[in-house]
Design a protein that fits this description.
The structure holds two protein chains of two kinds.
Chain A: H1 2-5, E1 8-19, E2 22-33, E3 37-41, H2 48-55, E4 63-68, E5 71-72, H3 78-84, E6 86-88, H4 101-109, H5 125-144, H6 160-173, E7 178-182, H7 190-207, E8 210-214, H8 218-224, E9 227-232, E10 235-240, H9 242-247, H10 249-254
Helix pairs in contact in A: 4-5, 4-6, 5-6, 7-8
Chain B: H1 2-32, H2 35-60, H3 68-83, H4 86-92, H5 109-131, H6 136-156, H7 158-161, H8 176-195, H9 197-207, H10 209-214, H11 219-245, H12 255-268, H13 273-289, E1 297-299, E2 302-304, H14 310-325, H15 338-345, H16 347-361
Antiparallel strand pairs in B: 1-2
Helix pairs in contact in B: 2-8, 2-11, 2-12, 2-13, 3-5, 3-6, 3-11, 5-11, 12-13
Chain lengths: 263, 362
Amino acid sequence: MTPAKHKNLLELRDVTIRFGGVTAVRNLSMDIPKDSIVGLIGPNGAGKTTVFNLITGFYRPNEGFIRFRDRDITGLPPHRICGKGISRTFQNIRLFANESALENIMIGCHVRRKSAWWMMPLLIPSCVREEKNIRETAWKLLATMGLEQYANVPAVSLPYGAQRRLEIARALATEPSLLLLDEPAAGMNPQESTELMDFIRHIRREYELTILLIEHDMKVVMGVCEHLWVLEYGQCIASGTPDEIQKNPKVIEAYLGEEVFDA
Amino acid sequence: MQQKKKNRFRDTCLTIIVIVLLGCFLHYAQNHFNGYAIQIINLVAVNAILALSMNIIYGFTGMFSLGQAGFMAIGAYVSALCVLTPEQKEMMWILDEIIWPFSTIHTSFFVSVVAGGLITAFISLLIALPVLRLGGDYLGIATLGFAEIIRVVITNATPITNGALGIKGIPLHANMWWNYGWLLFTLYFMIVLLRSNFGNVFKAIRDDEVAAKVMGINTFKYRVISFCIGAFFAGVGGALMGNLITTIDPKMFNFLLTFNILMIVVAGGLGSLTGSILGSVIITVLLEWLRIVEEPMTILNFEIPGIPGMRMVIFAVALLVIILFRREGLMGMREFSWDSVIGFLSRPFNRNKNADTGKEQA
């Protein structure tokens, strides 16, 4: 346990959160090794997105703590956690609807900015240079995501697949070391989800990321994840490699047994 | 890249030309127009500053704030107190002696306007810290409450503000050059700030606050910044208005004043600087021009006596029409750009060109 500890980028220890009488997440412990792609699965309403909200600081756990890069981040506000290097996407896409694709990514770049707002009207050179750099970085990210043709189109008018990619691009613009993807394959056909798997592996290499994803598409989960946690009613009922999970009787029971794991 | 640079050079030239033309027009107006027309031209500038100040808070950052009249009151009173001479103040304060240090302050007009803006911004900061934790309609109600509190405090702080009697005889410093100078400064400030990534940050908070937080934006901080910038320019606008009308009293800064500015912003387009400018021109001019309908007139041998307040009825109907049929206002969220103007003007030529090439191909 101890030698492995330093390799873990994120650690959850006995995290519990209750909403009134409902315990949404109970005694959850997770160790996410650096540079890995890991997954969080479970039936609807199991508390997966709640775990994301706990990690990104929207909820404060009632018990337990969360450590990122060996530092306690429990209870920090969301913007501070983003500053430390955790970024996420949302299950129901949450882009800045009236802003263009380029502006969406530029907003992601803001968190790494050093100059203050009042420097801008005074046209202080360092601030103007930074502004230019942000614009260039955003263009580059747009190009890598193949979204160049949408640069000046409001995010709300983008096609669905492009919106998903733009949301990932925006998350990458904050220069994270841990990326949380909430159902990235939702609404994709089999071919698109195969492309998504390659894409996830590609960005891990390219941006030196550790990726935690929530997904219902078992083909994606089993194909791309190196380690899995299974949640049911807020409790972790199993964890292990995809092969182990597929054979776990508890998991099969939770998913009602049938055909889910035929991938 | 070269094309881009060329375009930027062209845009700068065109902008300078427009500013020079505006200067020529103002110079001509000052010498040839009557006092009434000049007053309207001045009001356009002041209303534009106020509309811009409200637009950054409501249109760009999405905070429904109704505190504008309160901020204007602070700006106007600070400026008036600074610009009057000690002797004038001693004569005017009849209910209560004016207290030190207000009795001895005497500054130039420019300094008084800046002071008005800065003190308004400072007070708005104190208001923002508790109030901006609210969102949506609650924020509107709370800021409206604060605007009323400011008005009541001004009414009762007789040793400083001369109470309900107000301040009269403020020298008419706010001529066209000052008003339009301040308008240009406001525009410059807003354009540079809102076109930069900080502007994107404000808009991000407006569009989706949760996502903005995830993107590492300290939303509370930027909401406070936007609120204080808006308050600063509202204070400046109030100071200019006080110096333009030369008389201020607490009753002037009631909710109706906020409503007028809100109307300009909504009619022009929430989240469009161009819209605010156009809106203030159109509505300020219309408000004066529509006075015709309040005068007695004869239509087809029918004598209609003058109906005071008729123009406000027409305005209410106009506002209803805007809300029903063009909710995004004149400009929506679009902005003026030289590209679009040139594209629009050269459209007939392009059409001809296309037709020609079409013929050749045929």
